[in-house]
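Note to self: keep these together.
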Amino acid sequence: QVQLAESGGGLVQPGGSLRLSCVASGFTFGIMKWYRQAPGKERELVASISSGGGDKMYIGSVAGRFTISRDNVKNTMYLQMNSLKPEDTAVYYCYGNRGGVDYWGKGTLVTVSL
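Structure:
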């Protein structure tokens, strides 16, 4: 059974850091992505990474602060988030596609607040 499971979310003060993890079970995905959905807003793509980890993409608002990576031996993708801002508050989801079928994790909540 193919599953994605995120972890690592929590409450952090502005300027702080968190590291999110996404463990894939049942299948090794090619391109993988991190999305987020803030309260009252649509889900947006945050970052993506190629199967080998060499190609990465970030949206402008997180470039220079977030780093996406993966460990294919552990079948795990990561999102290192530094210099967090209140506007980064959201539920973060990992995503993968297999054979045209989209797979999503259940999400992990990140709250940036004093």
